[in-house]
Amino acid sequence: MPFQRYLLGLGFLSPALLVLAGLFLMPVALTGIIAFTNMSISTGVSGGAHVITGNLLTGLRDDGVEPAALDRLAETVFEVTPEALARARAAGVDPAFVADIEERLVGRRFTDGRAFERELKGLPHRPRAIRDLKVAADLFGASILNTRFADAAAARQAVVGVLPDAPEATVDRIVAASYTGWQWTTGNFARLLSSPDTLRLIVNTVFYVAATLSFTVFVGLFLAIGTFYLPPATAGVFSVLWLLPRLTPVVLYAVMWKWFTWEGGFVYTAAEALGLPAFNYMKGSVPTAWTIVILVNGFIGASFSMILFSSALKAIPIQQLWASEVDGASRWQQVRYIVLPQLRWPILFVVSYQTLSLLSSYQEIWLTTNGGPGRTTSVWALESFNTALNNYTGDLQYGLGAAMAVMLVVVGVTLSVIYLRLFRFDDLVGRPKIEF
């Protein structure tokens, strides 16, 4: 019977478990997997081929591969083979001229295009036009450059054919570098740890989260406690007004802030009328850009905090407040000794939730300053988004962006554990100390 109940309960939970696995666990797992690859827009998300390009040779030259070997790879070789002769016939070259080539030059190989053309000029049925002669010569040319090889074995065979005396290590480097698909690597994390931009992003993110979180918690507390002591009707109207940042669609909310702070906006017009500096406050300077970013996100978070704190305040027994008033307690003493101690758990939740939310949020910054001016207001989450999905150059680096996201998850989980220890979460879920 217990086992049957277990199966029945599992059956009822199965839809929720499937949704959890499909919408949460699978994306997290895929992000973790992609973080250990060099997957990008150039590699694609599936397997690739081997292609030796001019840019690849330049990179190998910079990495110390012997220049003479790379120059030979870039050369075009002219060889008279049955395949090349068939290609010439199919292209409509004079059959008599093709027959001359087959009779006198078959099996010969030329590394210099001019030398091959000189040989062709000496044939009886050569074309009279130089252009036709060059077109015919090109049909016998073959180069390893920009040739697509299906696998490493074919690429290796082609490289060895051009560089028969090259060391095996050199051939291995060329073949490995020519692979266009993604590969497993830990280079993304090494790159993040060594990049000079990493420290700037960390400082920006810490400042953004700390400043916005402080605004969210303290303003939310102030609003909740302030409306708690107001008459119910007035408190209701005031609360609804403060919910507007939370209820307004984020795109419309960002447009409103742009109208408020850009050239010709409300702040700009007011500053100009008062003789104060008037400019685009959202992108015109670093201090004003950070102020806008913090306020945009802070008002949304304060609305959320106010809802939770207001609900928690209503759960406080009113008799405690009455008793404190009989004892002569002031409003501040009520807040300090009665209200705040009983808001400990709601504050824990708001701090934890808002920290994780701010760590992963970027849409408000993206829609307002877009990390500007320059990249001074860019945070870790926004940089991860731009790296993987929104790069202006089109060089989307999925693996590097995923690695940044994984590091953000690790930081979020670590902070959650710290918060739970700091606020003694075990007391909240433990057995009550007073039994009724």
Automatic annotation (TrEMBL):
Superkingdom field: Bacteria
InterPro entries assigned to the protein according to its UniProt record, in alphabetical order: ABC_transporter_permease (IPR051393), MetI-like (IPR000515), MetI-like_sf (IPR035906)
GO cellular component: plasma membrane
GO biological process: transmembrane transport
Chain segments annotated as transmembrane: 206-230, 237-256, 289-309, 398-423
Keyword check for Cell membrane: yes
Record-linked Pfam families: BPD_transp_1 (PF00528)
Membrane topology (UniProt): Multi-pass membrane protein
Protein localization: Cell membrane
Alphabetical UniProt keywords: Cell membrane, Membrane, Transmembrane, Transmembrane helix, Transport
PROSITE patterns according to UniProt: ABC_TM1
Signal peptide: none
Domain ABC transmembrane type-1: from-to ranges: 202-419
Database matches in SUPFAM superfamilies: MetI-like (SSF161098)
Family note: Belongs to the binding-protein-dependent transport system permease family.
Name of this protein: ABC transporter permease
